[in-house]
Amino acid sequence: MNVVLRGARQLVVLAVVASACTGEPSTPSGPPPGAPSVDRMLRDLGGDVVTALVRGYHGGVSTDVAFVPKPHNVVVRWSGQGLGTDLSDPRTTHPTPWDYHQRVPIVLYGPGHVRPGVRSARSLDVADLPATFTQLTEFPFGAPDSDPLREAVLPGRPPPQVIVLVAYDGGGWNLLEQWPRAWPFLRQLMAAGAVYTNATIGSAPAVTSAIHATMGTGVYPRTHGVSEITARRPDGSIGDVFFGEEADPRLLKAPTFADTWDAHMGNRSWNGLLAYESWHLGMMGRGSGVPGGDRDVAVLWEQEPGLGQFFVNESLYTLPDRLPGDGDLDRQLRRLDGEDGAIDGSWRGYDLTDPRVVPATPAFVRHQGEALVEMIRREPVGEDAITDLLFVELKPTDFGGHLWNMVASQEAEVLRAQDDVLRSLVAELDRKVGQGRWVLAFTADHGQTPKPETTGGLRIHPDLLGRKVEEYFGRSVVEKVTPTGLFLDHDVLGEAGIALEDVARFVADIRYGDALPSDVDRSSI
User: Can you state the percent helix, strand and coil of the chain, rounding each to 5?
Assistant: First the structure.
């Protein structure tokens, strides 16, 4: 495992050995003797990885010490409590700079607007999407990290009536390659459009909120400010970067293409988004939170009450009046219940009455798909000459990847269901807007984590590392621990004369086995 220390002066990269061995006792007067130096860590990670980490860091928002697990190791979101027992949580996370999380497809499709048959292996990333929308609309949106996919866009054509951006959450190349027969319709779009096979998400950590904001703004987190899921907020508190159920994008510091285009058109452009949670709002923008902006259409999901419901922050966005209700989700769940051969309230061993399971199922994909088609039918999408913008994020591939992992057959079924939604979306655009009058861009926000048991990796519980830091320094210096790193109490550090670099170098020297509870069988970790 590697660790990155974020200081005002520089980015410091450190290595942590993930093993069950114990080291020599050390002293809290500074980092342990022999702890790796900053320069060594920089060299060990390499230029490409450090570049991704620098792009993904935003001062005052990001963690102070960032974890970078060695390939195939994973820092999990959940507590180390229960390790070595049946209560141990098997789920995984994905905030790394390694290629299996970084590599994503970028596809452009749009007869009459997109040159068919383009197959490109040039290096680019999702920040290039807004500049491509700029080329399609001939609107001069400034995004310094964004370059258009020029070879894909046919010159001299009038702007499309609708531009659609579809993102499969966790739908990177490693998931598609794991289940190559589960996305036949996407393959058809690739064959008829332009495909970029060497695209990445552009920055690290590979987390949903950061990368969706990059798709929307055309700049990296170092500029747009949404660098992680858990952030240090302006008042010093640490919490959800979009303020949880408030669904408030106030920390998004860069303009999105959609907000800027809408303002340019005097709010006459229709902007809409269908997604799972507030972390995806950066794809579209801040709605009426932008000076002079209007309440763009947005459809998110709230897990409570019951199995959940569609919602949005209606002070900033508009929730459509007519969306599929609870009865539709119940119908989809009953249909799914029988698909494994038994009507028993479960699907492949998972409880279909559990709100933590439902968003990872094909039933939820179909429910979202019904809402998407209904929104296009009832909203004024593509009904005038002004280009409208639609943003779609399909979460179940990611939700399922966390719940049962990308190698499980359930994930293939979820991917097939999302492929069906993509097919329905294209059919409805053809019906409502007309063939040759719209453009679809497809991508993903990151890849997925294979089960560590299948790759020789291990799960690292960050709360255990946080406890070791406080034991070593004898101070309550850790404010919060996340899968991406440590938030530290700078007042306590200053009073005790502890440098950020000291903390990071200590973490670099920890053997993971040193942090495990004494009653855990280390041979099983």
Answer: 35, 15, 45
Provide Rg for the chain, Cα atoms.
Answer: 23
Read off φ and ψ for residue 146, nearest 5 degrees.
Answer: -115, 130
* Residue 437 tokens, joined: 């009058």
Task: Read off φ and ψ for residue 328, nearest 5 degrees.
Answer: -70, -45
Is the backbone of residue 50 left (phi > 0), alpha (psi -120 to 50) or beta? alpha
Strands 478-482 and 485-488: antiparallel
**Which parts of 276-401 are beta strand (E)?**
297-302, 309-311, 346-347, 350-351, 388-394
Please name which of 19, 87, 15 lies closest in space to residue 460, comparing C-alpha atoms.
19
Residue 66 φ/ψ, nearest 5 degrees: -105, 135
Measured CA to CA, the distance from residue 462 to residue 153 in angstroms comes to 45
Please answer whether residues 67 and 485 qualify as being in contact, where contact means their C-beta atoms are separated by less than 8 angstroms. Answer: yes
- Tokens for 430, please give them: 């053809």
3-state SS assignment for residue 301? strand
| Residues 51, 53: Cα–Cα separation, whole Å | 5
| CA–CA distance, 41 with 12 (Å, rounded to integer) | 7
Q: How far is CA 369 from CA 166, 184, 299, 492, in A?
A: 12, 17, 12, 50
Q: For residue 453, what are its two tokens?
A: 């048991």
Counting runs of H as helices and runs of E as strands, what totals does the chain give? 18, 22
Of residues 185, 192, 196, the one with CA closest to residue 422? 185
- Which letter, b or e, does each residue of 460-496 get, where b requires 16 or more Cβ atoms within 10 Å of its Cβ? bbbbbbbbbbeebbebebbbbbbbbbbbbbeebbeee
Q: Token pair of 65, please?
A: 């010490």
Rounded Cα gap, residues 265 and 387, in angstroms = 9
User: b/e for 282-303, b at 16 or more Cβ within 10 A?
Assistant: bbbbbbbbbeebbbbbbbbbeb
> 454-496 pLDDT, tens per residue?
888 888 888 888 999 999 999 999 999 999 999 999 999 999 9
Q: Which residues pair with 300 in a beta bridge?
A: 311
Question: For the segment 105-150, what is each residue's pLDDT rounded down to a tens digit?
Answer: 999 999 999 999 999 999 999 999 999 999 999 999 989 999 999 9
DSSP assignment of 200-260, as one string?
Answer: E--SSS--HHHHHHHHHHSS-HHHHS---SEEE-TTS-EEETT-GGG---TT--S--HHHH
